[in-house]
């Protein structure tokens, strides 16, 4: 990572939708509750990170680069570069250009860290400190306009992997980090060296002693951007939009006449969620769901501004079936919003989805909401993210008849996904 220039248990049994008696809601899969006006944002592609966030002008120039996302240091006692650009105005400007943001929090480091002069975790207080720093990370992220549903990545620099006490301290710290972020409605990410932090997280992937982060971002400077085939980490771990890799370190690149010192990253993982400001071209109603059959929640006057967090589908109005979810959790038809694309979704607004970890191994994805539907090729390993767009009724599995429609159009039973209920629908997920 860019700062001071020195870098140094068994899986669950296979499930045929008739498996274990109840989904796990404690470690390693801990509860995550999203607020009404939230969504998660998944980014797949090349990214970069740099010590100090570039100016708006520099980010404009770098639109000609192959990168579409940038890592930003939102806080942490070990953050060593000033961040004069990190304001709500900057976030609004660069995200309107289409940039995705990857929040990084450089908090306490391992007691056996190789990073000089670092503020370190106190072994006896590791759990309390992990929760405390997660709370601060959320505060700092919200200050610059990042929404719940965002992923925040704890930066755990390389440390002595052979030190057993240090390993246990780091794992307790990161477990509490994950649980506190989940409690506050944020996704948990960890940036770590492949040979220390990432290796140790993989070793306890299925351990009931530690909460599992939703995504891992490894440091391995081998020049390969591949998100599979990582030594020490099974390809079955963090499989579904849960991986990132920093594959090249400190060097300079120039685009649009602007030179920056960067690290290279490859991503398919959750990043920050933000709102996008538009106006409406007539007086319209807001609804509790994406359609006029839902209760009316309010009225928005002609030319008033709206803050859109994501787009989803619903009944056709005018030329479009797109509906916009607003920051208060209500919906408006996209037909009357001055978004740039009709009838489809408008980049860079993401599609609405809320991911939750799966709680069993080898979970089937089906073509419809029931066990009678054909399966898709491939089974979801335990701990995969189910990127849920909506819920609907289907055949009963375990204690629930709820099925989740995923962002790829497939369905999984809600019984084996760590949503807030395994008997009924979970807020704020919409009905299909």
From TrEMBL:
UniProt xrefs under Gene3D superfamilies: Glycosidases
Signal peptide positions (record): 1-26
Keyword Signal in annotation: yes
All copies of domain Rv2525c-like glycoside hydrolase-like, residue ranges: 61-266
Alphabetical keyword list: Signal
Pfam family, one: Rv2525c_GlyHyd-like
Protein name: DUF1906 domain-containing protein
Organism this protein belongs to: Kribbella pittospori
Taxon lineage: Bacteria, Bacillati, Actinomycetota, Actinomycetes, Propionibacteriales
